[in-house]
Automatic annotation (TrEMBL):
Source organism: Comamonas aquatica
One Pfam entry name: KfrA_N
Molecular function via GO: DNA binding
Keywords on record: Coiled coil, DNA-binding
Name this polypeptide is given: DNA-binding protein
Coiled coil: 103-265
Ranges of residues in domain KfrA N-terminal DNA-binding: 14-134
Comp. bias (Low complexity): 312-329
């Protein structure tokens, strides 16, 4: 009986499991799940176990032992056969448990070994990285040392150049200092001569200033006397101006009084003129009325006399008030 070859989800086929079990059996080993997996180099226990059970179920038929087994079953009592089957089932169960435990232990050992291997690889990688970093640091330090050496060499050359320049500068400064000293000596001599000339000039200026001061004091005395004379003249002029002002003030008051009298006379004249004009108008009106209405002449004359009297009184009062309101100059 040939095994079927269904494709399992993990890629393990039943034919592979059966072939591995046949090979183990031919080598004189009992096919177990772990041995089959080790022989194939792959596969999980959950996948290999049902395929191996199927292999065991067909093993008798494949070996031609089914008829012999049936004869043995017929010759053995039923109780013994059931007991043997029970023992076989228990043995198979214990064997399966032992195989599972061994497989679990093996997987744990493999996982532990793999973890140790990974840890060792990580340590090696870390060590390699550290060595690489140390190498890079040493390369950088070496490069920095070379750069510093070149920089120090360059700076040494520059310092030597600066030292030579400073020596030249010191020599030049010494020469300039000597020249400066000679120049200062010449300046001192010239300054001494100038001080002597300045002293003589100062003495001359002091004498000239003393003469000028005396002349200025004399001029100041004369100016003071002239100021006193001017003050006296100004006081006399002020007294004369005050007297003249009083005289003009008296004349002004007299002129104002005469002007008021003239205004009063003018007011009286205006009053008389107004009264005369009113009288003329009344006479004209009376003549006209007599010419047109002779009957009412007497009544009109009486009324006209009263009106004239009232008009004269009002005109006199108005002219008097007007004269009083006239401004005085």
């Amino acid at each position: 009986m040939q095994p079927t070859a269904p494709k399992t989800p993990r890629g393990i086929q039943e034919a592979d499991v059966w072939a591995a079990a046949d090979a183990l059996l031919a080598e004189g080993h009992k096919p177990t799940i772990e041995k089959v997996r080790l022989h194939m180099g792959r596969g999980s226990p959950n996948t290999v176990a049902p395929m191996l059970d199927a292999w065991f179920s067909t093993l008798g038929a494949r070996l031609g032992l089914n008829q012999h087994t049936q004869d043995l079953r017929n010759s053995v009592p039923t109780e013994v056969l059931e007991a043997a089957q029970g023992l076989w089932s228990v043995a198979l169960q214990h064997a399966q448990q032992a195989a599972d435990q061994a497989l679990t232990d093996r997987e744990a050992e493999l996982q532990h070994s793999q973890a140790q291997l990974q840890a060792q690889e990580a340590r090696l990688a870390q060590r390699e990285e550290g060595l690489q970093q140390q190498k890079e640091a040493m390369d950088a330090a070496l490069k920095l040392a070379h750069a510093q050496r070149e920089d120090l060499s360059r700076r040494l050359d520059e310092m030597q150049q600066q030292l030579q320049e400073r020596h030249a500068l010191v020599e030049r400064l010494r020469q300039e200092n000597a020249d400066q000293r000679k120049h200062q000596e010449a300046l001192r001599e010239q300054q001494a001569q100038e001080l002597q000339v300045a002293s003589q000039e100062r003495q001359r200026l002091a004498e000239q200033f003393a003469g000028n001061e005396r002349r200025m004091l004399a001029d100041l005395d004369r100016s003071r006397q002239e100021v006193e004379k001017s003050k006296k003249s100004l006081q006399d002029a002020e007294r004369k101006a005050e007297a003249r002002y009083e005289e003009l003030q008296a004349r002004y008051l007299h002129s104002e009084e005469e002007l008021l009298n003239a205004r009063a006379a003018n007011v009286q004249l205006q009053q008389s003129t107004a009264v005369a004009q009113e009288r003329v108008q009344e006479l004209k009106a009376l003549l006209e009325m007599r010419a047109t209405q002779p009957v009412a002449a007497a009544a009109v004359d009486s009324q006209a006399d009263k009106q004239r009297t009232n008009n004269r009184s009002l005109q006199r009062r108005a002219l008097s008030q007007r004269a009083l309101r006239l401004p005085r100059k």
